[in-house]
Records
---
Amino acid sequence: MKWRIGDVTVTKIVELEVTGGSRFLLPQATYDEILPIQWLQPHFADERGRLKMSIHALVVETSSHRILVDTCLGNDKQGRRIPTWNNLQGPFLADLAASGFPRESIDTVLCTHLHVDHVGWNTMLVDGKWVPAFPRARYLFGRVEFEHWRAQQERDDMAAVFADSVAPIRDGGLAELVETDARICDEVSLVPTLGHTPGHVSVRISSRGEEALITGDFMHHPCQIARPDWSTLADSDPDEARRTRERMLAELSDRPVLVIGTHFAGATAGHIVKDGAAYRLAV
């Protein structure tokens, strides 16, 4: 799946798609609550009201850069909180290459935040050692985000993620710490969207008068467009996450911005439009 924003192309590379099983993340999203939000079907929910979600990466091609935004779960990882995310053996790198993006061709890796499903393919296991999967890339980590997870002592699962998917990049000299409003190149810049994590960012793309926004996880699922008051159990500051959603939805509904959801399945992208007292995603 591809989108064009002026002279920029964005390509979606899927690692994993699931239907149901997301109540651990959004317990508010019961079948009875989801079914009345009819516009969620068929892309984002099924006829029973089960949520559809995707873990995918996005390749942003500009005139000067080939940027991989978020790197999914990765293979061979251990210590993940969700058991099925351990010891994966998926074809992500082969799928990336088949789409025209061999790993050596990526010059920038950009992580919207450092949760498990956004950093996994930063590294790959070679002869028992974690090495950068994209050896010619600079890896952009938010400074606030990096310092937060480097210092945390409470979550063993995040310590494992940092050890196998973030620290090897730093130790290999490929990490570059950036601010939450950094400009990556002429067409790509960061937007602070805090609350899910302390340094969470979204990615703005602007080219020839057209604009897109890659959400990261300030929204996990389009149901939060209809119900921005629903924060997920993964949000570090649920109140701030709600305020961020409300602010961003209001801003996005006023402008023709293509919103590309980092975990949105199916059509994945659309425009935020007002829908009564709330909003919907027009695809």
---
Amino acid sequence: MLEIRFHGRGGQGTVVATTLLAKAFFQAGYQVQSFPFFGVERRGAPVEAYVRVDKEEILLRTNVSSPDHIVVQDQTLLHSIDVTRGLKPGGWILINSPALPADLKPFEKYELAWVDANRIALKHHLGTRTHPIANTPMIGAFARVLGMPPVDAIVAAIREDVPGKVKANVRAAEEAYKTVKTFRTSAVG
């Protein structure tokens, strides 16, 4: 079973991102679960959401405490919470950031990827200048990093479930898929 934890802030579309990713995996032939965990339910508050993926039926009904991979939709969360909490060694951390974090020490057991999803969202007029909605670029980038689900399944999920700006969201996901960068921390040591 593959378990993925998303970190974001209220209003960024974190829960929608996990729903879209789960639907893309489902279209690719997997069994899925997608569910949020809310603390303080207000715009800007930290939010976690989860996706489980397996070829077999998923009977587990708990939060994801030991994820295989992490997606961080807001890089400021790197300084306020432990996004690596419970992350399995060697797991991917995808960060919405224009650059690799300056301090790599907290990430030495993991693989890093980053994409400037905010820039991509703004380019495609998703959200506002002060509140870009970068969820579709993040799932596009994640699909590339993980090598699944296929980008066509991501596009199909967006077309099926995103209520507005469908073409812009598709283009944003495809651009992030093409431009995400990776860094293997194992190459440092």
---
Amino acid sequence: MRFLLVEDNADLAASVAERLRLDGHGVDRAATLAETRDCLAAASYDLILLDISLPDGDGRDFLAAERRAGRDTPIIVMTARAAVVDRVDVLDLGADDYVTKPFDFAELEARCRAVLRRRGVALQTVQQFAGLIFNPLNATVRVGDELRELRNRELRLLEILMAAPGRIFSKNQICDRLFSYAESVTDNAIEVYVGRLRRKLDGSGARIETVRGIGYRLTAP
């Protein structure tokens, strides 16, 4: 998944981004509403984590504008305001959820998973394709009687391919989902993750096909 983290507290933003990246997500950071709009103009995101008090405006105004424009990217508001009226306010404006600062990282991760499940962004609990059984919740693939564990970015890569078997995903599309702007990524890095995942799928009827000059797709010969 690719997340946009809108938070002007540099230390908090760095900690949240690091935790999400450890889970294998790509995370872009914005410290202002202007930077947020720039990010949204350049990329698409599976989830936005939105602070309320920002140097150039109120995150609630941004939230309301997004919903008025018909944009439905899931948004979780991060706020220090714990009063019921404040929580009701952001939910009524269109937030999918909120988390009150200071928060535990485990709670934030759980809320992200819950929002993505409700909005249909996350994959089903278990998926099957061409003899493999993929469980993203415990990061495993079962091939026959053998259970194989996936590393974080192997998991995210398989999520991308399993979402649309037969569809070709370019290296740029894969890179956008696996990495953030802050990470320096080469074509070779994508090839390495594809190679690792191919080995995890060995023995099943599924294979990752290279479409020369275009990208990759999951197929069943």
